[in-house]
Amino acid sequence: MSRNRSVRTPVSRPASPPGRATAGAHELGQNLLVDREVVDRVVDLVPDADRPLVEWAAGRGALTLPLARLGRPVEAVEIDPRSTARLARVVPANVTVTRADILRHAPPSDPYDLVCNVPFHLTTPVLRRLFTLPDWQRAVLVTQWEVARKRAAVGGATLLTAQWWPWFAPRLDRRVPAAAFRPRPSVDAGILLLDRRAEPLLPVARRRDYQRFAAAVFNGPGRGLHEILVRQGLSRADVRRWAREHRVAPGALPRDLDARAWVVAFTVASRGR
Ligand SMILES: C[S@@+](CC[C@H](N)C(=O)[O-])C[C@H]1O[C@@H](n2cnc3c(N)ncnc32)[C@H](O)[C@@H]1O
């Protein structure tokens, strides 16, 4: 395959905010993947489809080059000019290297899959951004272990997960030891999968109301879910029926609910308004 030696720097917006491009390796979260098995696992988790791939935070290409071998168009996005220059010299023709900030990068407007070994310091903004972007189908993410667990609702869901659950299905794939990176970070990582639901549990038009409801339940007053839900407009009989159907224990907290229990509670509460 011929080499693509160019780096695309979108002109419509700055490639990076002031100071970022010259930031040091530590500041940019440059913990590069050096474990072959982890790289292979990330690539295996990319769905078998014809869609293009976008890789955020491509670094020196530990994932980019194996992803390129899938034979699909790949856009590799990276902020560090040394890394993009280096990457552009080695990628095959199906890879475009874009120097840009992943918090501002404009992704394709057709369906695509996304891969990102997330710079640890950007985890929450990256997740928030992803949830609002419309066209990716699966995101394969490497994040800190605790974040991967929390986002996949292992051991209890967070408000952020609950707020996006009707539209995205998160899954924890595996733990990745800190030794899989150079330099070695202080904590382990995990592989987190996010799938856009082919059939969302609620229409997008209800998103704002649902998210407000989830926040009110998570942060609302009341001893336990039953009381909280009554304050959110469910009758006591509705709460009892809902708890029975979704096997919600008497002492359960908002973090203990699954996606369907959230959606049904919201739907019942909306009926009462
Ligand atoms: C954890 S490393 C991953 C590198 C490579 N994908 C790998 O797995 O070895 C994160 C990468 O994100 C880049 N980065 C940090 N902040 C960024 C930003 N705002 N936009 C784009 N890339 C960023 C860093 O320069 C670094 O190369």
From TrEMBL:
<feature type="binding site">
    <location>
        <position position="101"/>
    </location>
    <ligand>
        <name>S-adenosyl-L-methionine</name>
    </ligand>
</feature>
<feature type="binding site">
    <location>
        <position position="33"/>
    </location>
    <ligand>
        <name>S-adenosyl-L-methionine</name>
    </ligand>
</feature>
<dbReference type="GO" id="GO:0005829">
    <property type="term" value="C:cytosol"/>
</dbReference>
<dbReference type="GO" id="GO:0000179">
    <property type="term" value="F:rRNA (adenine-N6,N6-)-dimethyltransferase activity"/>
</dbReference>
<dbReference type="Pfam" id="PF00398">
    <property type="entry name" value="RrnaAD"/>
</dbReference>
<dbReference type="InterPro" id="IPR001737">
    <property type="entry name" value="KsgA/Erm"/>
</dbReference>
<keyword id="KW-0489">Methyltransferase</keyword>
<feature type="binding site">
    <location>
        <position position="78"/>
    </location>
    <ligand>
        <name>S-adenosyl-L-methionine</name>
    </ligand>
</feature>
<protein>
    <submittedName>
        <fullName>23S rRNA (Adenine-N6)-dimethyltransferase</fullName>
    </submittedName>
</protein>
<feature type="binding site">
    <location>
        <position position="31"/>
    </location>
    <ligand>
        <name>S-adenosyl-L-methionine</name>
    </ligand>
</feature>
<dbReference type="InterPro" id="IPR020598">
    <property type="entry name" value="rRNA_Ade_methylase_Trfase_N"/>
</dbReference>
<feature type="domain" description="Ribosomal RNA adenine methylase transferase N-terminal">
    <location>
        <begin position="38"/>
        <end position="198"/>
    </location>
</feature>
<keyword id="KW-0808">Transferase</keyword>
<feature type="binding site">
    <location>
        <position position="117"/>
    </location>
    <ligand>
        <name>S-adenosyl-L-methionine</name>
    </ligand>
</feature>
<dbReference type="InterPro" id="IPR029063">
    <property type="entry name" value="SAM-dependent_MTases_sf"/>
</dbReference>
<comment type="similarity">
    <text>Belongs to the class I-like SAM-binding methyltransferase superfamily. rRNA adenine N(6)-methyltransferase family.</text>
</comment>
<feature type="region of interest" description="Disordered">
    <location>
        <begin position="1"/>
        <end position="25"/>
    </location>
</feature>
<dbReference type="GO" id="GO:0003723">
    <property type="term" value="F:RNA binding"/>
</dbReference>
<keyword id="KW-0694">RNA-binding</keyword>
<keyword id="KW-0949">S-adenosyl-L-methionine</keyword>
